[in-house]
């Protein structure tokens, strides 16, 4: 099982053709009765399941087709790599490269610019078997940050460096860039990674910030002149509203949660203590994800028998109502979860074993775009999940997902 930066999860296993998927309705605990069977497909010795997302935030209807298309391409890229015999970690990296190369996702090409007008990216990847982890933060001048994170993971799995040194798992800034180049990863000028859309958004948001700062400065000056008679709490209330309104514009650098351990992604294979293998990836307000370590919390919750109820409770108790975010009036984030286990009751014979894959997503943002695909599917499925009408982003959540049963041939 592999977990990765803020976009995808892959489960790999040998399997044959028997498979069914059952999506379940949002905001309920009951599986629907819709089934899709691929019993007529030819057996194969290699397979897996991939789940990706294109961010938790707001996805406009006018660009819905583009968001879904990039998720489909990412799923297809991962499945193609698995069918070619690649390891799950390589399939994950391939899916992320596809997402990073799209101008419609806030990663790699087309990322939000920071306050200085530059592009800085984060990425991370985790191997659930070895539990090794690789990440980069605030890296500039590299087209695909996940390639660097993946290289760090690979180097860590080789063991210690000369003189007993422990290989790094997390590099940031210029050091991360220089290390990537020393590993043969080609640099890419930051200006080539900006798009017309990201430049336009930067200019628009910078004007908003400058205006807000002028208003804030005016209130400070008024406070000094009227300190003897003005109610201080009124000034602070206005200031708070300005700052909270600005925070949703995401003017700072993109994916600021992706590199933090336990926040952007988490992966852990089944063991004696854990009956399920899990992979988790998050998105949303980086500070909220960091302070709650949402990826690791959701992974731990997935060891409960009822995955849907467990994720619902984790998002409510460990995120929206977290004591670490008690001062926040809106908690914004989203998560995709992939878990699997053997299905003893589904074994028709001694040389066939069943594998149950459950995939879920939940978000407190207005919307979240996801895509998923098994190696037995002819094409990926995509969906833009939205909060129910009348609910308040950051104070309520949506949860959806499905289950896929795979039959694997025991060698």
TrEMBL record:
Protein keywords: Hydrolase, Protease, Zymogen
Annotated region described as Disordered, given as residue ranges: 13-45
Biological processes per GO annotation: protein maturation; proteolysis
SUPFAM superfamilies in the record: N-terminal nucleophile aminohydrolases (Ntn hydrolases)
Bias (Polar residues): 14-44
Entry GO CC: cytosol
Molecular functions per Gene Ontology: threonine-type endopeptidase activity
Similarity comment text for this entry: Belongs to the Ntn-hydrolase family.
Binding partners and assembly: Intramolecular proteolysis generates 2 subunits, alpha and beta, which reassemble through a non-covalent association to form the fully active enzyme.
Protein name: Threonine aspartase 1
Native organism: Mastacembelus armatus (zig-zag eel)
């Amino acid at each position: 099982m592999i977990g990765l930066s803020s976009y995808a999860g892959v489960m790999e296993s040998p399997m044959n053709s028997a498979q069914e998927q059952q999506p379940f309705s949002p905001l309920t605990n009951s599986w629907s009765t819709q089934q899709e069977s691929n019993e007529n497909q030819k057996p194969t010795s290699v397979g897996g399941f991939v789940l990706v997302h294109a961010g938790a935030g707001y996805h406009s209807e006018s660009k819905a087709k583009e968001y879904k298309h990039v998720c489909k391409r990412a799923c297809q890229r991962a499945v193609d790599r698995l069918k070619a015999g690649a390891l799950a970690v390589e399939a994950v990296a391939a899916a992320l490269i596809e997402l990073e190369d799209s101008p419609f996702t806030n990663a790699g090409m087309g990322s939000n610019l920071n306050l200085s007008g530059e592009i800085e990216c984060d990425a991370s990847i985790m191997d659930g078997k070895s539990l090794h982890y690789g990440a980069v933060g605030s890296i500039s001048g590299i087209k695909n940050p996940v390639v660097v994170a993946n290289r760090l993971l690979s180097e860590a799995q080789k063991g210690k460096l000369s003189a007993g040194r422990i290989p790094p798992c997390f590099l940031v800034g210029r050091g991360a860039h220089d290390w990537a180049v020393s590993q043969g990863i080609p640099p890419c000028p930051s200006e080539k990674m900006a798009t017309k859309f990201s430049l336009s958004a930067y200019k628009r948001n910078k004007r908003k910030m400058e205006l807000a700062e002028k208003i804030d400065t005016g209130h400070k000056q008024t406070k000094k002149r009227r300190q003897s008679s003005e109610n201080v709490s009124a000034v602070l209330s206005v200031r708070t509203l300005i700052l909270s309104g600005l925070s949703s514009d995401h003017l700072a650098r993109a994916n600021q949660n992706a590199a933090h351990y336990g926040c952007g992604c988490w992966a852990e294979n089944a063991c004696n203590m854990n009956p399920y293998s899990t992979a988790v990836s998050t998105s949303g307000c980086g500070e909220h994800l960091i302070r709650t370590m949402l990826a690791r919390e959701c992974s731990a919750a997935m060891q409960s028998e009822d995955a849907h109820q467990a994720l619902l409770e984790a998002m409510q108790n460990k995120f929206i109502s977290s004591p670490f975010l008690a001062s926040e009036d809106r908690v914004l984030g989203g998560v995709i979860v992939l878990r699997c286990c053997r299905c003893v009751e589904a074994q028709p014979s001694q040389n066939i074993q069943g594998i149950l894959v459950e995939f879920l997503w939940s978000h407190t943002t207005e919307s979240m775009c996801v895509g998923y695909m098994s190696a037995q599917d002819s094409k990926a499925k995509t969906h833009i999940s939205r909060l129910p009408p009348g609910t308040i982003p950051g104070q309520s959540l949506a949860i959806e997902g499905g289950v896929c049963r795979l039959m694997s041939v025991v060698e």
